[in-house]
Write a structure and sequence with these properties.
The structure holds 2 protein chains of 2 kinds. Chain A is an all-alpha fold. Chain A contains 7 helices and no strands. Chain A has a single domain, classed as AhpD-like, CATH 1.20.1290.10. The radius of gyration of chain A is 19 Å and the shape is globular. Chain B has one domain. Chain B is about 60% helix and about 0% strand. In chain B, helix 1 packs antiparallel against helix 2. Chain B starts with 13 loop residues before the first helix and ends in a 5-residue tail after the last helix. The chains are: A mainly alpha, B mainly alpha. At the A-B interface, helix 1, helix 5 and helix 7 of A face helix 2, helix 3 and helix 4 of B.
């Protein structure tokens, strides 16, 4: 897990997972778009999402935000990019999303990403490993916050000197 | 600033020194002082001991690697808005 690229990928998963959970958990009052009566743009989007998840169901977040199909399409494009296999595997990204959903107490998100983890081959032991890490670090973070501990392990990881993707190589500014 | 005065490693009993050595091995890093969290956990071995064992068990390689689990831990800490 060295180099910044994997951390950028992880951050994308954490961010978009939280964004989708926020919609799912808070937007019920809007009502979900029904595929049968949805406009063609939304139906095409739903078909793409179902194919990605190899599922008959479209995750509720997209059905809630598809009241504006163009907006939903952009959110989906970002989510598809974040969750797809890249430097980090899709299987591991679902584990990250599961941990984040648990931490932010999104029951819907937790159930969805648990299902995805299982679908992508994570067994009962693997699920409990992620539950354990999530639970123990939920404890550590609250202990650290209560005692207002200051970060003291930042220099454990080496600085990544590579440029941004496609960018020129330059001297890395030292902090 | 921390709510408590974090004691130097030298202020802890011998049993805790052993824990600090373990934490050095765990992080594969020679700290000038053990990390603040290690010192907090060493304050009460009856809490810190089992808590540390549960953490170690959770973080050990299994279906996911230790590195993957460290990333999950970082994501959990970020989602909890914890700076430490």
């Amino acid at each position: 897990m060295t180099g910044d690229a994997v951390w950028y990928e992880a951050a994308q998963v954490v961010g978009i997972t939280h964004a989708l959970n926020v919609a799912t958990d808070a937007l019920g009052a809007l009502g979900m778009i029904e595929e049968a009566t949805a406009p063609p743009e939304a139906r095409a989007l739903f078909a793409e999402i179902r194919a990605f998840y190899e599922s008959h169901a479209v995750p509720p977040a997209y059905r809630l935000i598809a009241h504006d199909p163009s907006y939903a399409a952009d959110v989906w494009a970002a989510a598809r990019r974040a969750y797809a296999d890249n430097r980090l595997s899709r299987r591991f990204k679902e584990a990250l999303a599961f941990a984040v959903s648990m931490t932010t107490r999104s029951a819907t998100g937790t159930a969805f990403h648990l299902g995805e983890m299982r679908r992508l081959g994570v067994g009962p032991r693997g699920v409990m490993e992620i539950v354990g890490v999530t639970q123990m670090f939920s404890s550590y973070t609250k202990i650290a916050d209560t005692l207002q501990l200051e970060p003291d392990m930042a220099d454990l990881a080496p600085l990544d000197p590579t440029p941004a993707p496609g960018g020129p190589v330059t001297d890395v500014p030292r902090l | 600033m921390p709510t408590v005065r974090l004691r130097d490693a030298a202020e802890y009993p011998a049993a805790a020194q052993k824990l600090f050595e373990l934490s050095k091995t765990w992080f594969n890093h020679d700290f000038a002082q053990p990390p603040a969290m290690s010192r907090v956990m060493a304050w009460d071995p009856e809490f810190g001991g089992p808590h540390g064992r549960a953490m170690k068990r959770a973080m050990s390689p299994g279906e996911f690697t230790r590195a993957e689990k460290e990333m999950v831990a970082a994501a959990v800490s970020g989602a909890s808005a914890c700076e430490y």
